[in-house]
Amino acid sequence: GTAEPEWLWRSGSLVPWREARVHVNAVGHASVAAVFEGVKAYLAADGRRLLVFRLEDHLRRLYDSARICRLALPYDLDTLRGAVCGLLTANGYRQDAYLRPWAFPQGVIREQMVPAGTICEVLVDSWPFRSLLEAGGGCRAAVSSWQRISEAAMPPRVKAFSNYHNGRLALMEARENGHDWPIMLNERAKVSEGAGACLALVRDGEVVTPSLTSGVLPGITRDTVLTLLRDLGVRVREREVDRSELYLADELFFMGTAWEILPVTAVDGLTVGDGVPGPLSRRLAAAYTDLVRGRDGRHRHWLTEVPLP
Ligand code: PMP
């Protein structure tokens, strides 16, 4: 995430990345109500185009987040879709690229509480990334002592920057204790999600994932995976999940735009299955790769094509 691209998109035009400045007042209370998205563009298997994955769904979620936070985004969906595609072309990517659309209150804000209806600047930044899908590794996870934010306090379905302090605390604790990623429980002590990724378990050939009212972001990868599982004829259940079910899982995996499909090989120090990514996780990762790289014709509407420069 440190590469400097040539351009970013800012409130209607491409601007040189190095010159995209704000006043210091944009970083204080103004940033509390800022919302964002994380999107990936994959190099197609044919090497001839980039495929932005589920762009419209990500942008819709950005508007949903803005609506709940009562922020006004002065650009319509077509404009933002054009912004993303135009930015990929302008920056000349010939490889996988991550896209970060976000919105924050425009102008100088000194009020402690950003007023409802505040008009936002909208930006899209981008940088190259290396997909882990084809690498096939796993990670070690641990249940966090930090509780997932609840609907009663900070709606977890909003992708607001301020929500990420929750996952950040959990991640630091997990790393401190020698694990890779945290798993957070919600206010009912049921499993919610990781710090930036949803979670599913496999037991007896059935996939179980916490329901959308468990304190999870309505993950687009989660929805994709549930669709792929139905394509594969695998039984899927969305319901409340107990912590102890994690200990009995045959397979466990995170799913998110950044994480893609990341198998969990140990949870709270207990080995999951054989301690290596399980068969269904591997099948799913392969199906996800085929999908995002344009080898699977079934869900074409999820791919926005951008020709290589
Ligand atoms: N939960 C949180 C808190 C996240 O930040 C993300 C990443 N956007 C996810 C889950 C996964 O969502 P998606 O699959 O849409 O990237």
Automatic annotation (TrEMBL):
The keyword Cell inner membrane does not apply. The keyword Amino-acid biosynthesis applies. One of its GO terms (molecular function) is branched-chain-amino-acid transaminase activity. Its cofactor is pyridoxal 5'-phosphate. Pathway: Amino-acid biosynthesis; L-isoleucine biosynthesis; L-isoleucine from 2-oxobutanoate: step 4/4; Amino-acid biosynthesis; L-leucine biosynthesis; L-leucine from 3-methyl-2-oxobutanoate: step 4/4; Amino-acid biosynthesis; L-valine biosynthesis; L-valine from pyruvate: step 4/4. Keywords: Amino-acid biosynthesis, Aminotransferase, Branched-chain amino acid biosynthesis, Pyridoxal phosphate, Transferase. Coiled coil: none annotated. One of its GO terms (biological process) is isoleucine biosynthetic process. It catalyses: L-valine + 2-oxoglutarate = 3-methyl-2-oxobutanoate + L-glutamate; L-isoleucine + 2-oxoglutarate = (S)-3-methyl-2-oxopentanoate + L-glutamate; L-leucine + 2-oxoglutarate = 4-methyl-2-oxopentanoate + L-glutamate. It is an enzyme of class 2 (transferase). Pfam families: Aminotran_4 (PF01063). It comes from the Bacteria. Belongs to the class-IV pyridoxal-phosphate-dependent aminotransferase family. This is Branched-chain-amino-acid aminotransferase. It comes from Pilimelia terevasa.
